[in-house]
Each structure stands twice: as structure tokens, then as C-alpha cells.
Design a protein that fits this description.
The structure is a homodimer. By secondary structure, chain A is α/β, with parallel strands linked by helices. Chain A has 14 helices and 11 strands. The longest helix of chain A has 18 residues. Chains A and B meet through helix 3, helix 4, strand 7 and strand 8 of A and helix 3, helix 4, strand 7 and strand 8 of B.
Chain lengths: 356, 356
């Protein structure tokens, strides 16, 4: 089993990665079991697929464990759902010793983390990510959140889990497109922090059917944990994780979060950010081309007909842009992200021509 | 100006105490003003009394400052109000740089702190307590919370303010009974941690009309900050702050939080806890008598007719008691609190005879 520490002083924890891990989880969690109540938070599909089995194996190993289901999709992160689950926990007699297990993708992890952060001023929780995106990104680093009608992730906190348990075998139950999409975020780690890894990824992508997911997850988690350890609350360095996300988020928002997977949106965003990096003299054309070639090896779905102005609208209406604080993540050489607040809307608009 | 540090590593801050402080607050806060949005959260009566003036003086000093009113009374701490204020902040364009000022008593401080803890994963806030209870207790230590219909303070977090600003002159605007009640919590600090302070308090209480509130607040804040610094998240030592609170809370709950001020309830609770301490051999009769005499110098309102079983019901229905984990704070000598989980319901019932 690969163990990657996230070094955050008293809030430190380990990321554990091993194919088949889910089956042996009760053994690994045993040292955390003091007879308290354990609650699995998960969405119906995941509960059917693996949640019920996990509960049974925990029960057999002497854990006092129940499941609280949360709705499918992003609406699980609503204020109403947050309140409902908190109330269900009170009714179930949960106290400060209760421990939560977030079994699912980013939505489940974000919601569970925020509940853990705020239930009776904080209880323990573990992340058990089931999607590639959650395994390499959202399950690590303690960003928790719920949505308001006015926008995503407006309410939340930084609250670290007590551990992250990753079973890459779970990926086989995902649709192929879902796995492909997640590779976009993995390319991001190479691009912002590790040029040799980016080169390795590029060769791996030549044979997509044998893509070594476990190795790629291990490497991505190592990079993410190092960045989080240096800047837990995203005061500066952690912002580089947003490479490809300015345009990526705008594409998703413009398509109302229905038309494009997050990883694919980030891939398109990275193409634009790479182009801007070249325009501003930070990346030479060879480097930019290498980034583009690597991303293009992913069989990402082509974009639907999109009005560039619609996408730009989402960027310019962002308060951060209005105040002139838009932090744009660029590459100053491959594997070396930098942050600029000098990127004009005109240049961003022009960069969209690369993808639209 | 008296400055008392709360030493919590990267979350350290200072408590500032000075009569008339409110008038010079803009000067003191100037170093924290980077042009961000400042929001005063306060209840209507306090806004009229001092909130509008504070806003005006901040505006004059170049702060971009507005007021968001919250309802009077405990219902300000409801889930609905929490959501409403968060939404109002989004609409007002608040971002991660926004700074909150909690101007009021414990309800305002608890709610504001929880909003600060969770708005966009955390913004800065300052406590400006206006009641004696808030000055010596709730404004210090970062306990934030809101209520559910099923119980008080079930949702919250530990989230420290960036500073506490105490103006004892504000106490003169409080009803006399409110000030008297708060002295109960001050006596508590002497009882649990500082026998000489308890003796001093006893002599001060012989001349209640000249009670030196500023000195008493300074001393109380020093004790509280020392305890919080040693046990931020109430894993052990911080529990001693609950001296007098087991029965105190039960009295308040039995009277549905309408019939008794919190400080008075704590005073009655301390009389019972002192009696139990003597019964269990932790306090000699002379010490117990001194504690009782000191508390009795407070002209606390007499209790209405109360059925002891109703009060006991509230203690025994507490989940902590059912699980056998009820941590009862007792005194092993004056100024030295200890925690026992060996106190039987029968002994607690008997102790009620001291006050009912």
C-alpha cells in the first residue's frame, strides 16, 4: 500500500492508495474505532454498488455503523440537504465522537466534510473517493463546501479529514468517459509542478487502454499533498491548482453544469492558458505545443456550439475580475506555474479561439 | 489599555480592555483596514444605542462599513437567520477579504462567529461584546454556534476572532440585574482557578455599588484566555469552565430560557456543585461555606416554584448522562476545579435541596 503524508502539524493525515483497498478497510480503520457511531454518507447509486457491502463488513468487524443517504447530483450540496442531514444525525443520537465516512465523488466529499466541520463544532471524518477526480483532487486538502442558489461553494470551511482511502479498482465501475475526463486534472499536476511527470504522462497516453491509473493517482496525490502542506488555506501557492480552471469553470457555468465534465472543461481551459502563457512570453512555442499535444491525446468530447461572449460573460461578471484581482494561473516553462493578475479580458477572449 | 494575549499559535489574538474604548475603536482597527468591506452584525436595540455611531465613526475614518441587522433574542441563532445573513452578504458583494464585527451579547457573538467561520471558507471577525457575560466569557475562545429546533448550539465550530475589544463603559447602559447576573460567571473564575481572586471578589461584593467591573473583567479574561490557550477545543481542561453549568443549564431549560438569567442560573448551579464537592470530600465545610457566602452576597432573584424532578429530567435526558459520561465539575479546594464522571443522579437530586 502506498502511503502519502499530508503534513499539516496537528491536522496531519495520510493518503492510502491500493487496488482492492475497500475490502480491507475495516482492518485499516480498526485503530480509529473506540465504539463510537460511524455514519456512511453516500448517494443511492454508490450505496447500491459498494456502500451496503462496506457497511456490512464494518458491522461484522464490530463497528457501530449506519448509512445516511444523500440525493444524487449537485443538489446534495444544497443548504436544505445540509440541514436535513444534520437533523437526521441529531435524531440518530450522534455526538462529538461520531465519525463520518464520505463515500463518493466530489459532491459527497464536500458535503460530508462541511457537516463534519460544523456538527457539534466538529467531528472526525474520512474520505473514500470513488471517482478519479475525487481521488486526485477534491478528497485531499480539506476544502469543504455547500452551494447557495446564488453560486457554488459560497459556504464552507477548511477542515481536514483524518485520512483518505483510495481504491483505484473502483474506477472500473465508472463509465470510460468519466475516467478519461479525470485524466485532465492529472495532466494539470504535471503541467504546474512536474515536467518529467508530464512527459511520462504523454507516453502513457499513447496507450490509453493500459493507462496506469494507480501510478498516476499516487503521483498526483503526492504533488497535491505537498502544495496543500505549504498553503493550507489557499493564500497563494495553492492557487496554482486552478490552472485551466478560469476558462474551465466559465465553460461549465455557461453550459449550466450539464454539458461538460469537469475534467474535460479543465483540459480545454489548459489549452487556452497555455496559449496565453506563450503570448506573454512565459512559454516557448515548443513547450506550448508539447502541452497541447499531450492534452490532445485525450479523446475528450468536442465542444458544442458555444458563443464566446457567453463564456466571457461568466469570467467578467466574476467579482474577482471586476475588482482587478483575477489571478490567472500561467506556466513559466512546463512544470512551473506562476500567477498573474495582469491578464486582460481581450487576451482571454482571444485565447478562446484555440478551442471554439 | 489592558491587553491580554490569547496564545494559540497562528490563531493568537489579543483581548483589549479600556473604559471608553468604543469611541477610539476606528483608530485601533486602522491597521486591519486594507480597504475591504466591513460589516457590523448587531441587534436592533444595540444598533440604535451604539451601532449607528460606531458605523459613522468607522466611515469617517475611511472604513467601507455597513450594518446587517439580526433579530432580537435567541431566535437570531436559527438556521434560517444564518442562511438569510449569508445570502445578504453575497448580495452585498462580500468576499474572502470581508471583515465582520460582532457588536452585542453572546447571541450576536455566536452567530457572527459561525458566519465568519463558514462564509467562503472563513473570513476575519472581531468581537465587541456589550454584555458582562459576553465580555468575560462568550467573546473569548472561538466557540461559535447556531441552534436547531432540537437543541441549542448543535451546529457550530471552533473559529477564533482576530481580536476582542471590551469597553466596560457599555455596562452602564445595561439594567442593574443584568450586570449583577454576570458577576455569577466572574465568581466562577475565582472558584475554579484562583482562590485569592475569589477572596478579593468577596470583599468587592460587600459594596456592590462600587464593584470594580473593569478590574473584574481583566482578571476573568486573563483566566479564561489561559484555559483556552491550553485546551482550545474543549478536550479536557476547558470543561472546568462548566462549573455550575450542569444544574444551571437544567434550570434554564426547565424554565424554557425565559425565567432566569444565565449568570443567576450558574450561581445557583455553583451552590449545588459546592455542596456535592463537600459531600464527596473534596471541599471542607469552611470552604464550601465561603463559596456559598460569596455567591449569596449577590442579590440574585429568588427562584420560582420549581419541581425538582423537572430539573433532573433535563439532566438525565442528556445523552451524555445516559452514556455514563456526564462530566461533573467539582472543586477540590477553592480555586482548583476537578472533573468527575462518578456523580450519581441520586446525589445530584439531593443537591437540589440547597436551592429549591
Amino acid at each position: 500500500m502506498k502511503i502519502i503524508p499530508v503534513k499539516l502539524g496537528p491536522r496531519s493525515y495520510d493518503i492510502h492508495i491500493e487496488p482492492g483497498l475497500l475490502k480491507t478497510l475495516p482492518k485499516h480503520l480498526a485503530s480509529f474505532n473506540k465504539g463510537q457511531q460511524w455514519i456512511i454518507l453516500s448517494q443511492p447509486d454508490i450505496i447500491q454498488l459498494i456502500g451496503n457491502d462496506l457497511q456490512n463488513s464494518l458491522l461484522k468487524s464490530g463497528f457501530y455503523c449506519s448509512i445516511i443517504p444523500i440525493p444524487n447530483g449537485e443538489r446534495a450540496k444544497s443548504f436544505d440537504q445540509y440541514q436535513k442531514i444534520i437533523e437526521a444525525m441529531v435524531q440518530a443520537g450522534c455526538d462529538r465522537s461520531t465519525t463520518l465516512l464520505a463515500l463518493g465523488g466530489g459532491v459527497t466529499g464536500d458535503l460530508t466534510g462541511f457537516i463534519a466541520a460544523t456538527y457539534m463544532r466538529g467531528v472526525d471524518y474520512f474520505q473514500i473517493p470513488t471517482t478519479l477526480l475525487a481521488m486526485v483532487d477534491s478528497s485531499i486538502g480539506g476544502k469543504t463546501a455547500i452551494n447557495l442558489k446564488m453560486g457554488k461553494n459560497l459556504v464552507g470551511s477548511f477542515y481536514q479529514p483524518k485520512g483518505v482511502w483510495i481504491d483505484p479498482d473502483l474506477l472500473t465501475s465508472l463509465p470510460r468517459e468519466e475516467r478519461i475526463s479525470g485524466i485532465g486534472e492529472i495532466i494539470k499536476y504535471g503541467a504546474i509542478r512536474d515536467a518529467p511527470f508530464l512527459e511520462t504522462l504523454s507516453t502513457w497516453l499513447d496507450h490509453l487502454e493500459t493507462f496506469p491509473f494507480t501510478k498516476a493517482i499516487e503521483h498526483s496525490c503526492t504533488i497535491k499533498s505537498e502544495i496543500v502542506a505549504k498553503d493550507e488555506q489557499e493564500d497563494h501557492l495553492r492557487m496554482i491548482l486552478n490552472f485551466g480552471h478560469t476558462i474551465g469553470h466559465a465553460l461549465e457555468a455557461h453550459l449550466q453544469y450539464g454539458g461538460l465534465r469537469h475534467g474535460d472543461a479543465v483540459s480545454y481551459g489548459m489549452l487556452c492558458a497555455g496559449w496565453i502563457s506563450e503570448q506573454t512570453g512565459l512559454l516557448n512555442s515548443e513547450e506550448r505545443q508539447f502541452l497541447e499535444d499531450t492534452i490532445s491525446k485525450l479523446p475528450s468530447p468536442s465542444l458544442p456550439d458555444i458563443d464566446p461572449n457567453g463564456v466571457l460573460q461568466h469570467i467578467s461578471s466574476d467579482k474577482k475580475y471586476r475588482d482587478g484581482h483575477l489571478n490567472y494561473v500561467l506556466l513559466s516553462g512546463l512544470g512551473n506555474a506562476v500567477i498573474s493578475n495582469q491578464i486582460s479580458m481581450a487576451l482571454i477572449a482571444e485565447s478562446l479561439k484555440v478551442i471554439l
